[in-house]
Amino acid sequence: MSPVSVSTLICLVTFCCLGGCARIPQPVTYSSTEQQKMQATHHWDVLANDVANQVNKTLLLHDYISDPVFVRATCGSDNAACTPGETSQFNEGFRDLLITQLVRFGVPTSAEENPKAIVVNYKVQVVYHRDNRQAARPPGILTALTTAISVLRHAPGEVQAIAAAGVLDMMNSATDDAGQYEIIITTSMIANNKYLFRTSDIYYINDLDFWHYQNNAETREIQITNR
């Protein structure tokens, strides 16, 4: 590649970087993070174990050592128990797993709801993204790697390689398909109409498995679209 071509490419890179700086802020994504993906019932059990551990610690902290708890699947709100036939496969499976984990931790767990029991509610929301999404990778990876290789090898044309990698960084900073669906699983513990404990966990799921988490009676999807 001739020096003129290199200069032209560098100018194009600069133009791409500065061309959008008009009168409004440039949209940027969040910093690169990680989010777990539920793909097996074992993952449900891992979550149940974590929730049971937190429930147990909260009961000890508030001196509810001997008070029984009752696990209830809710649909729509914390105080609306799912009706027969409304629960999903996840609702039923997670309740069984959570009760098992609570018993393992030594937490008194009631088989039936009663006024003296501390209620542990959980619900799941299915979030559907209409647009195809990709999981963002940290920008600068290609440029950094290419620079390192050029420094080590001192290869001819290293300037062209670094410039080309910079273009790729801008054009392809996200390459992993994240799928269309996510779920929000919220667990709370209520005593005397007060929250003792509450947590919300967010996961990716396989698109074809969304029905594991979808309530049967009616659609409760949250649809998020980009305009």
Topology:
Layout: H1 3-18, E1 37-38, H2 41-61, E2 69-73, H3 89-104, E3 118-129, E4 134-136, H4 141-153, H5 158-171, E5 174-177, E6 181-191, E7 194-205, E8 222-224
Parallel strand pairs: 1-7, 2-3, 3-8
Antiparallel strand pairs: 3-6, 4-5, 6-7
Explain this structure.
The chain is α/β, with parallel strands linked by helices and 227 residues long. It has a domain of 127 residues. 35% of the residues lie in helices and 23% in strands. It has five helices and eight strands; from the N terminus they run αβαβαββααββββ. Strands 1, 2, 3, 6, 7 and 8 form a six-stranded mixed β-sheet that branches. Helix 1 packs parallel to helix 5 and helix 2 crosses helix 3. The radius of gyration is 25 Å and the shape is elongated. The protein starts with a helix and ends with a strand. The relative contact order is 0.19. About 7% of the residues have low confidence.
What does this entry show, briefly?
The chain has 227 residues and is of the alpha/beta class. The chain has five helices and eight strands.
- Give helix % range: 25-40%
Give unreliable regions as ranges: 144-154, 218-222
Report the sheet with the most strands, covering strand number, pairing sense and barrel closure: 6 strands, mixed
Order of H and E elements: HEHEHEEHHEEEE
Number of helices: 5
Overall mean pLDDT stands at 76
Strand content: 15-25%
Q: Evaluate the radius of gyration.
A: 25 Å
Class by alpha and beta content: alpha/beta
Principal-axes geometry comes out as elongated
> Span between N and C termini?
41 Å
Strand tally, please? 8
